[in-house]
Amino acid sequence: MELYFFAFPPLITNQNQPLSHVHRRLTKSALRRPMYQKRLFYFYYPRAASLMVPYERKASDNYKLLQKPRTLQNCNNGEGGKLILASPYSHTRITQKLGNGTAGNQTCKYKIHSLIPVSQKMSRNLPMMSDLKVKLVRPLIPPQILHEEIPLTSKARATVLRGRRAVKSILDGEDDRLMVVVGPCSIHDVDSALEYAYKLQAYAEEAAEDLCIVMRVYFEKPRTTVGWKGLINDPDMDGSFQINRGLRIARELLVKIAEIGLPAGCEFLDLITPQYSCDLVSWGAIGARTTESQIHRELTSGLSMPTGFKNSTDGNIGVAIDACKSAQAEHVFLSVGVNGLGSIVETEGNKDVHIILRGGSNGPNYSADFVQKYGAQLDKAGLTPRLLIDCSHGNSSKQFERQSIVADEISKQLSDETTSDILMGVMIESNLVEGKQSIPPTGRAGLRYGQSVTDGCISWETTVDVLENLRRGVRERRLLRGGNTKQISFSSASSDSGIVI
To answer: GO cellular component annotations, sorted alphabetically (predicted)?
Structure first.
């Protein structure tokens, strides 16, 4: 049931006025409009001890008093939950002027923050010209509040910085290890994600000489049409869209993963969510559906970590090259600051960008021929010829089991003189249990523990085998270079590319 909260200014009501007076006012007000039928309302008295009076509209001119007035602090939302105080600034519509004052200034469609009359907070008598197709507006917690509630610990900070430096060194050719972004297609369960993180961190320490492992921790999922959009958007997986809770869960999980000592990689899909968690991310990704987006390129230009752009869904790499060039440049754009306010952002440009090959509708693009071809294109465009191969999606023909085949091919290319210097890393979709599952009508209760709810993933056991194969490829590459474990030499790079080689 949708909730509407109306505030009656002192001009109309005071604590001596009976409820019947308010009732009469309601039946004559702009609430007679059909859009307000069969809705639940709470009416707030600024000068009447903060009383909240619940009414339900039954017919065009009939309001029923559901219960006795209660104080603001003790009022619930009609569904058993506690009424939480929130900001009054986010209002959507204001009712018509009636008589000698406003009969019902609508504060917002959700909650009321203070005892200050709404008439002092916003102008009156605005026509209903906007938000005509908006059903509900809810308050969003400011990023700064989450940062204070869930702070970046010193240990987590050290992990994030170490991860960023390592990825940058690999991108610049100063570290010959292979970067591996591995983890679930999407995070939907904190417990299974943490279990996976502990397993991965133990292996990462063992393989640290050959592999730079970054856990794939994706909270947002782009959808071709519709579907579950990720833990931030709908953490309960029931269509309730408790986004504030999703943001809190995501930040808490990233802190825990960083404290384990494992760098995290995230896809940035929404333009606001980076303010809530980007201080905990060591590597970022822009997906195939958003690489061509100007606002995502602008966002990337201000990100503090190395970031990869995927080729477009049709396999076109030209779009990703343009995205890298754009993200390296300075930009000025509109965004939201950590205080939650709209802001004008000026960026310096992000020089630590690269391209991710993920295949496309025309087929895979991870073969040696593609790697050589795209490396030459990057060099010609003045970008560092470095590629990260996505073993899933178009490169696996959307068959998760084929990720092992793709990784095996990359391992072989590491010891090929024509491709070894171009390959900087791989991405693997992996989980505790292989395959994927659909979200049942019962929601979380019916899910199998440790199995993906989006794209299919290889199992943890298979993941270890794949990583061991990649380690062998890294060692073969070192032998190819005569045992050099430090520097990779690129054929050439534009002097104004912004990349230190």
So the answer is: cytoplasm
Cα end-to-end distance, the chain, whole Å: 59
Which amino acid is residue 489, in one-letter code?
S
What's the count of helices (H) and strands (E) in the chain, helices before strands? 11, 18
Nearest to 141 by CA among 274, 5, 243, 251: 243
Enter the pTM of the model: 0.74
- Full DSSP string of 81-127: PBPPP--S------PPEETTEES-EEEESS----SS-GGGTS-S---
CB-based contacts of 468: which residues, under 8 Å, 6+ apart?
A: none
Q: Which residue has the tokens 């590491």?
A: 414
What is the 8-class DSSP label of residue 185? S
- Residue 165: CB partners within 8 Å, gap ≥ 6? none
Fold of 143-480: TIM Barrel (3.20.20)
CATH 3.20.20.70 location in the chain: 143-480
Q: Are 493 and 382 in contact (CB under 8 A)?
A: yes
Angle in degrees, CA 452, 455, 461, rounded to 5: 55
Q: Which two tokens stand for residue 439?
A: 């979200």
Q: What is the pLDDT of residues 361-411, one digit of tens each?
A: 999 999 999 999 999 999 999 999 999 999 999 999 999 999 999 999 999
